[in-house]
Amino acid sequence: MNNSLKQQLFDMQAGCSALSWSTQDQKHLWGRNFDFNRLAEGSKISYIPSGTEYYTCGTSVEHNLAEETRHTSAYAAVGTGFLLVPSTPVLYEGINEKGLMGGQLYYRNFSHFEDKARPGTTKLQPPFAVFHFLAQCATVDEVAAMVEKDVTLMAIPMFGTVPTIHWSFSDRSGESIVIEPDKDGVKIYRNTIGVMTNSPSYSWHRLNLLNYVGVRDLDYDTLELEGDRLEQCFSGNGALGLPGDWSSPSRFIRLAFLKKFGVKGKDEQQGVTNMLHLFQSVAFPLGMIRVSEQGHITEYDKEIVPYDYTIYTSIMCAESLRFYFTSYENQRVQCVDLNHLMASSEKVQFDLGRRADFHLLTSDPGSHRSL
Length: 371
Prior knowledge:
Layout: H1 2-11, E1 17-22, E2 28-36, E3 44-48, E4 53-55, E5 70-72, E6 77-82, E7 90-96, E8 101-106, E9 122-124, H2 129-136, H3 140-150, E10 151-153, E11 165-170, E12 176-182, E13 185-189, E14 195-196, H4 202-208, E15 223-225, E16 228-230, H5 248-261, H6 268-280, E17 289-290, E18 307-317, E19 322-327, E20 334-337, H7 338-341, E21 348-350
Parallel strand pairs: 9-10
Antiparallel strand pairs: 1-2, 1-14, 2-18, 3-6, 3-21, 4-5, 6-7, 7-8, 8-11, 11-12, 12-13, 15-16, 17-18, 18-19, 19-20
GO molecular function: hydrolase activity
Keywords: Hydrolase
Protein name: Penicillin acylase
């Protein structure tokens, strides 16, 4: 069990891209790609009801629970994660009943956590942050206030690992915030452009946008040089210079301009569909990102490949409280509704459905007609 849980913590340090967006009818969406070379056994779509008791520091498995960090969740939440730690659920991302949405992404070489808790604050281990914020906060304002006043993000290992992560959250107001634990303190970026990838910091990525000010959605006109006239012969040259690799800086730039120029859906269903296409533009195709360091492999790890790839994509809606997802193997959009789940006072889990799902039209006589 310990080896499996240790691998779960390592898996939390995957790559990934996150994005907030809205629809024409003012629905608010937040989603992410989860990019890694494996997903440890036990990771599922997980529902945790309100009234759940949990701890923000220590685990019952390691026998080091900090009793003073016991809490009771005020809000129900659903997201991707695991329930293998009896004392505290772990979510990679999720949404709660108030429409607060968000998750964690890899922040390699930059994340820094404290050795001592600030006076008057609760110790919070990074792996528990997503669930704790969703369990106790209704808005991004409350998340920001909690980070500033109520908790200290601690450099306390969980099964020997302190994940190097940062966070993004959004809500029904449409505001998207980024939380980054740096060496000179925790930074909270308010009213961001709604894009987050991995290292370096959000402030670096934001300034890097200035290198791409010429990117636009309109083709450039005919080129004239020394009396020679070159007519356009292909479309898309307005985006010349837009980086096409899968590095964190390049993915940030692509998502920023995709969000700027992408057509918003008229409603939630169309919004989720359009947003999935944006995520596909920064998704890791299997075979292009070879892993140089596999990390710690355990008996619980299944289907390990030598490449990072987009294992799943999730999108949630603050108004409907629906959580949508696709997997690399299954591009059919699946969905759970938090409104339905809140009828249960018990934890519930759903498989990610990582098997191909093809609809063979010729097997259904009612799907076609003769002409």
